[in-house]
Amino acid sequence: MKTLRTTCCVVGGGPAGVMLGYLLARAGIKVTVLEKHEDFFRDFRGDTVHPSTLDIMHQLGLLDGLLQLPHQRVTSVSARIGNLDFAAADFRLVPSRCKFVALMPQWDFLNFLSERAKRFASFELRMRHEGTGLFRDGGRIAGVEAQSPDGPLQIAADLVVACDGRHSTIRQSARLSVQEFGVPIDVLWFRISRQPHDPEQVLGNINYGKALILINRGNYFQAGLIIRKGTFEQIKAKGLDALRQNIAQIAPYLRDRVAEIEDWDQLKLLTVQVNRLRRWHLPGLLCIGDAAHAMSPAGGVGINLAIQDAVAAANILTGPLRAGRVTDLILKQVQRRREFPTRVTQFLQVNAHKALNAAFQTDGPIQVPWQLKVVDALPGRKWIMGYVVGVGVRPEHVVDAETIRIPQSLQKLAVRFGASIGAIMKTARFLRAC
Ligand SMILES: Cc1cc2nc3c(=O)[nH]c(=O)nc-3n(C[C@H](O)[C@H](O)[C@H](O)COP(=O)(O)OP(=O)(O)OC[C@H]3O[C@@H](n4cnc5c(N)ncnc54)[C@H](O)[C@@H]3O)c2cc1C
Predict the structure, then answer these.
(1) b (16+ CB within 10 A) / e for 124-152
(2) pTM of the predicted structure, to 2 decimals
(3) 32, 69, 260, 270: which has the highest count of C-beta atoms within 10 A?
(4) Do 20 and 132 share a domain, yes or no?
(5) How far apart are alpha carbons 116 and 39 in whole angstroms?
(6) What are the backbone angles phi and psi of residue 167, rounded to the nearest 5°?
(7) Is the CB of 297 under 6 A from ligand 1?
């Protein structure tokens, strides 16, 4: 079998993988990114580039180029819940360079970033290369087995980073254990045309036991009908007419356009998952992005988290990769750094699902709960939510490659500090349970 050698082999060319590849190559580290598809053109997988990701692009000097690509700017998100107009989040006060979420097709973002990465001599992107497993040298993972257009291939590496998404082959191959959090919803994605007088900003509509998200994409809406988990077959059985009526019932201004949905093939079912690895690493292997923690589309933060993981990983790993000494302790630091923001975000997502599920208990007009009216009246709430969604917990900053020289003693301290936070959290959970 043909064998190649690289310093870091990244499996998966999604937001996490391409960003990590870019950052490591920028620091002069030889990196090979494997992507199983022949291009980045995929079904809808989220188009949201958040203020904190735009900040990262600015730190890399890529922001102006990125914003030259066609995109829409979302400065606020609102929801119509029954007869209540609920201002869910406002990004205009976030402490970021860009006070908006940029909506752009994910393939445009990935094409842009990978094209820029290719300018670094140490970056290699191998399309149509599928990671199929791992190989070991003693107790350590020593590289990736892959299927290429020319046949099977082995890529030996000092470090393998799994960025191959929610159905990660690499994490399965490593037998890392996954903690699942039940999700009561699925999403049906489809497109429907948009008229100039339709709402400008992202709008959620919740009523009649369903929720409809409408993302303004210029002349069309990227629409997501949120349904109770596992009910797609029942919805299908009721027929397309019933579905069209449901949509028109929740968002009456779409009534004249629902006929555009002519076939079930126009609807794509996303089985929503929220899960997290207990341990994100093994000697020689690290998982980040959805491969370490599958995110729900709630809040549209999955891409952002994947990018932040990549930045944190690059900040921590650049020095050790250069020195050829990526210990398990170093990999543990990446998990310590990113697990907390992941936990908080998933906690919020799981609770958002619960609230939605409660709203789904009746097929009639929704009675807006008084608690929601109280929350709606809280001053400053939409700015706080704007921060939580747009910037998130523990936003990362690109550390200049030259400054990454962390002494071993500090690395150990960082891990200990992380461990104490873990202990405090466990105690708090225990006390709450009492
Ligand atoms: C329908 C849908 C809608 C979503 N909406 C949003 C949204 O609006 N906003 C948002 O922020 N997030 C959204 N998400 C979540 C978001 O897409 C993910 O959280 C984010 O893309 C994770 O990035 P990633 O790089 O970790 O993984 P992915 O984006 O999943 O990328 C993984 C990459 O690895 C490749 N790959 C997989 N297996 C292999 C292999 N064995 N070998 C080589 N390559 C491989 C895949 O082709 C893919 O390119 C949505 C997800 C879905 C499915």
Answers:
(1) bbbbebbbbebeeeeeebbbbbbbbeeee
(2) 0.89
(3) 32
(4) yes
(5) 16
(6) -105, 35
(7) yes
Kindly state whether residues 24 and 141 are assigned to the same domain. yes
The CATH number assigned to the domain holding 40 equals 3.50.50.60
- Tens of pLDDT, residue by residue over 127-148, are 999 999 999 999 999 999 999 9
Ligand 1 atom, smallest distance to 309 CA: 26
Q: Which of 23, 2, 201, 340 is nearest to 10 (CA)?
A: 23
Q: Which pLDDT value is given to residue 402?
A: 56
d(CA 358, ligand 1 centre) in Å: 28
Say if residue 125 is in the same domain as residue 21.
Answer: yes
Residue 336 vs residues 343, 353, 413, 416, 420: alpha-carbon distances, Å = 11, 26, 12, 10, 11
Nearest ligand 1 atom to the CA of 302 is: 19
User: Who's near 370: CB < 8 A, 6+ residues apart?
Assistant: none
Per-residue confidence (pLDDT) for residue 263, from 0 to 100: 94
Which residues of the chain have a pLDDT value below 50? 404
Domain that holds residue 315: 2-181+273-403
Of the CA atoms within 13 Å of residue 177, those in its CB half-sphere come to 2
